[in-house]
Every structure is written in C-alpha cells, then in structure tokens.
Amino acid sequence: MRTVIKEGQYTFIAGRGEVRPFLGKYAAKRADIFEVIERRFAAAGLGQMRYRPLRLELEITTKCNDSCPSCGMGALPLASGITMSPEQRARLVDEFDAVGLPSAAVTGGEPFVAVHALMPLIKALTGRGIDISKLTTNGVWGARRRCERTFDKLEKAGLFDNRLFVPLIMLSVGEQTMPLEWVARILHHAVVHYSDRELNVAVSSLARPDSREHKVYELMEVYEKAYGDFPHDRVHSTMRVYLDNERLPEQQKVHRPGETTVKRWMDRCFDCFAPTVGTYILPSGLVKQDGRVYACASFDVPESLGFGNLFTDGMRTIVERANDDAYLRRIADGGGLKGLHGAVPEEFTTETTCGGFCASCSLLSDKYREANGLPAVLPLPIIGQDALMSRLRPGEPAYNH
C-alpha cells in the first residue's frame, strides 16, 4: 500500500544552501525567509541570542472531547479542562509580538472545542504578522454539517493570510475515537478547495507500542471508499509510537519497547537549535494553557527546559533566561545532545538506557547539573487561572535555574 509523504523531506537550514519555497510539511512561502526572520528578531532587540524560537507551540485549552489513555499533552475532559481567557490571549499576543516571534502553532487539548477562543486568537496573531504555521486537531469538526462552515471561519479569521509559512492542518489519529469519516472529510475538503501553496495537511499516526500498527492505513481505506484515490501527494505524515507520559496520575504509562543507551540517543540527536524550516520549524518552544514556557515543543519536554510563565514573567525575560542556562547553551552550541560529550561522565551515557530522545535529554540535564555543581531544577509552578488573572506580573517569580 502506498504511504503518504514521509516526514523528513525538504529540510532547509539557515546558512546551508538556499530555501526552496512551497516544499516540505512546514513550507516556507519565500526564499529569503531566514533573512526576514533575522530582521524581525533584530527589530525586537534579541540580537545574537543563541535561542530565539521561530515558533511557539501554544496549548490554547486543556479541554478535549476525547480521552486517549496515552495522551502526550495531558488533556482533560471537557468538564474539567480550562481555556485561555480573552485577557490571557490578548497578553499572549502582545508578548509574542514583543520578541518578534515569526509563527505560532495551536494545539490543546482539542483546539476546536474552544472555537470561540481559537478564531479570535488566529485573527489577533495574524493581525500582528505572526503566522499560524500549524493547527493540530483530532477532527472533531469533521461532521458533515460542520466541516465546510469551519473552513469558512478559518478563512475569515485569517489562517490563509500567512506571510512566511504555508499553514498546516495536522490531523491526529491513533487512540482518538473521532470517526475516520470525519477526518477523511476534512482531508478531502482541504485538498479539493486549496492548493499546496495555500494549505498543507498532515496526519499524525501514532502506532500502538505492542503491534506497531498505524491507523493511517485504515483512514486511507475510509477515504477511498468515500472519495476515490487517496491524495498521497498532498498528505504529509508523522508516524511514531506512543511516548512515556507521566503528566497526569490517572493516565496510563506506556512503555516503549527496546532499551537504547543514552549515548546512542545523543549521537543521533538532531540539532534542534539550528534555524530550520521545511520538515520542521526550529528552534521551537511550548506554551502551556496556564502560561508555562518550555524551550522545546516535544510531547515529553523535560522540566529542565522550563524557564518561566509568560503571563507573570514576560516572554522576553523567559528567552533571556533560556539563553543564560548552561545546559541549554551546551546543547545549542554542540549541535544537539552530542554537545554534552565530555560534560557528563561517559560511563553514565554508555550504561544508562531509556526509550527516546526526550527521556535522554531529561536524564542528561540532571546528570549535567550534578556533574557541574549546579542546583537541581524544580518543575515550573502551576499557577491557577484566578491567580493569573489577579496578578499578571508577580513581584518575585519562582525560578531556580
């Protein structure tokens, strides 16, 4: 069976050849994109900082209509999840603009269960020249009477007004229980009504750890029964296994088969701090619904890469803290985790095993700090929404990097 476009094609890195527009999952719209981004950062006063995110992954809500046992984002049921308030969204847009952020990705939870917040946020960000590079969804809006209306709302909100990146709709299938007919309807509408210069679409298909089976193949069958040939040349893929997740005590912990040494993960690590477009948009960061900011957007981002709360500390302060962090500087200057060779004991990297890059990063961070006499890092404090609303900037933020 044919597969969709494999992740990994068309990676363009600043200073390593020319950028070819409209290629890759996160396609650039212009060949001079890195020059334009550099001017944005210079105008914002970020100068030659080593870590300047080209995109921040934004969790607009923790609400979700589904209940995946292995949810990597720690989503909550509709009744208990929280969505960013209008005041928080306004503050977030100001903070993103203040650091010259080129683009944002919106995730959850499920963003489309908070459509009353999602559309105004898209409009506000694009109005400041901040592209929406990705919308992640489980397809909850793919019902027959809702699909076309939602695309119309996305157009009116400005999703297609991006200046730097072709926007991407990422449909996640795996443990999700949304009808595959709905997901197929969204895909079909996207490829029929928009060219690949206007919109990219992708399927994130997370395989079961035990069987390694991907739901994307079932989706293809559903699509072909309804619409004919599957649009393999338009649909990008992200095909992975479920990661360990301990964000919520009630979520089941999934063990990834196989034990690989930390050293091997280090040697294979991609340079996440090289300005990159096409396959990815890097460097990236993650903003949780309550404002916590991490200098990485992976599902299992180590707590050591958390540098403050956007609503209380401000984005510029957080970026400055990240650039001052010894561990982050080491991996940024070393081209990834490989930059830690010689900075942590070799016996630790060769004898310790774990299940992925994120887990190895977390272990290496702790060991690096221990080996270099640096204080251990505590998780960023979770500040309730009421407290955030009552004080947008605290007197002394809790921070111990």
Main features:
single chain; 401 residues; alpha/beta; TIM Barrel; nine-stranded mixed β-sheet; two-stranded antiparallel sheet; 12 helices
Describe the overall structure.
With 401 residues, this protein is of the alpha/beta class. It has one domain (12-257, 271-325): TIM Barrel (Alpha-Beta Barrel), CATH 3.20.20. 32% of the residues lie in helices and 15% in strands. The protein has twelve helices and 15 strands. The protein has helices spanning 33-43, 86-98, 115-127, 144-157, 180-193, 216-227, 262-268, 315-324, 326-333, 346-351, 357-371, 385-390; strands at 12-13, 55-59, 63-64, 76-77, 103-107, 131-137, 168-173, 200-207, 235-241, 260-261, 276-277, 284-287, 292-294, 306-309, 353-354. The chain has a nine-stranded mixed sheet, covered by helices on one side. Helix 4 links the parallel strand 6 and strand 7 (168-173). Helix 5 crosses helix 6 (216-227). The longest helix is centred in the last third of the chain and has 15 residues, at 357-371. It is globular. The chain starts with 11 loop residues before the first strand and ends in an 11-residue tail after the last helix. The model is unreliable at 242-253 and 394-400 (pLDDT under 50).
Element layout with pairings:
Layout: E1 12-13, H1 33-43, E2 55-59, E3 63-64, E4 76-77, H2 86-98, E5 103-107, H3 115-127, E6 131-137, H4 144-157, E7 168-173, H5 180-193, E8 200-207, H6 216-227, E9 235-241, E10 260-261, H7 262-268, E11 276-277, E12 284-287, E13 292-294, E14 306-309, H8 315-324, H9 326-333, H10 346-351, E15 353-354, H11 357-371, H12 385-390
Parallel strand pairs: 2-5, 2-12, 3-4, 5-6, 6-7, 7-8, 8-9
Antiparallel strand pairs: 1-11, 10-15, 12-13, 13-14
Helix pairs in contact: 2-3, 3-4, 5-6
